[in-house]
Design a protein that fits this description.
The complex is a heterodimer.
Chain A: E1 6-7, H1 23-33, H2 39-42, H3 47-50, H4 57-68, H5 74-77, H6 89-93, H7 95-98, H8 101-104, H9 110-123, H10 131-144, H11 148-151, E2 167-170, H12 173-177, H13 181-193, E3 198-200, H14 215-232, E4 236-239, H15 242-255, E5 262-265, H16 266-277, E6 287-291, H17 295-301, H18 305-313, E7 317-319, H19 339-342, H20 344-360, E8 365-368, H21 371-384, E9 389-392, H22 393-400
Parallel strand pairs in A: 2-3, 2-4, 4-5, 6-7, 6-8, 8-9
Chain B: E1 5-8, E2 11-14, E3 27-28, H1 30-51
Antiparallel strand pairs in B: 1-2
Classes of the chains: A alpha/beta, B alpha+beta.
Chain lengths: 413, 67
Amino acid sequence: MTYQLSKKDFYAEPLTKTKAIPEEFVKEAYLVFACRHKFCRDICPNFDLTRREAHTSYGFHTSILAVSRGVGDLDRLVDDFTYCLECGACELRCPNTSMGGDFYRRSTTTVDLVRKVRRDHVADGGEIRNWSAVKDYLDEHRGFVAGQGELVTRWADGIRIAGDMRTALFVDFFTATQGTEVPRLAAQILAKVGVKFGVYSTPGVTAPELLSENEEEWKQYAGENVDAFKNLGVQTLVVTNPHDYALLIREYPKWFDMSGIETVFVTDFILRKLKEKGVTPAIAVEGEFAYHDPCTLNKLVVEADSPRELIAMVPGAEIVDVPPGNQWRYCCGNGNGPYRKLHEDVAYRIGQKRLRAAADLGADTILVACPHCKDQFTDVKTRAGLPVEPVHVLEVLAKSMGIDWQTTSPTIG
Amino acid sequence: MAEDVLYKYGEIEILPTRMEQYIRQQEMNEGERERIVRARNIHLDWYHRHFAYEILPPPEGEWEPKA
């Protein structure tokens, strides 16, 4: 898929207490502050529950403006910057993006902004409430790096993999340790379709949380990945976790030359291969399904079709679909960064609202294309007692293709 | 049409020289431009589905703005 480069150079200048905020950054804040539409507020899944305008794109930019004019203090305002799911809905609904971004080549980049403010605040010696939970998660992943070659392929026990790295499955630490069903299902579906592939086993710490703590460290892992892709002769990178996919499509091109490497999300790749090989899932899978768009595909990358097309190929699957545009205001509650670790209660309520919306449609199953959504919905379903089962799209597809898949692969790590 | 625009890939775009004094352009490639256009179309479809019971066709023939 096409890489998407959107970069503001003035974000590279760190925010510190001792230096004035650069004027270019202040003008950026004015561009959103000057807007009275506040579409960013109405589309935000977090604002939907907290009802705090300071938690919106409008609020973030206004806070920067307040600090720049000496009427606000980042030590007191930084907590607001943690109430961002990094889903990107506000960026898309901002008229600066949607009605003029392509014409002026200047758009609203709230996700980049909140990540920058958090990491600059931490680097400047500031504190963020509950940040230790994020640090623990990142430290756990940093600890995986030493043995990553074995760890990242352990999910594949019992599955024969050809090892042809021209097509490489990108499996990150979260998917390799907690969401192992996704690569297992993907590998078995691809094998059934006759695709030869290898597994890229040294991803480093790719969690988007790291961009909110230490951008240079994230860039180091990403740079090593790009070098390794080229040394291994990777031509097509098939990404199992949409959080990584969004980073590869949107963040890597900011700093690295990705030419010669095609990055594809796993559902897009499987759909393409099914069509190329003329394979049609034949076994009926009964159920009343709703589909939940992951924020990464639907809002950050804006490519939301392939999971729906895969479900449509499964005979018997009744889907009560909510179009992608209507789902911009939804999130599972996990967010595309540290949100759930910082605000577990609000995250739970966001997820509960989304699951309830699926139940109200009469669905008994909510299909997802993201292991983080599945993790969050599984937790929410259990706590809220809602009768909607979260299931990965690939699981339904595998069933329909008669694949003897295993969802009980052990949690590793 | 004002003369201060570029035509690129069938779309209009402001002349970069007009974005140098106050608000500067950011680095943006075609993939990002296409993403913005896709998102705009998704939003306009949503808007039409919810708030329009009819979509008016453009005027036929040569159209002149009213004086």
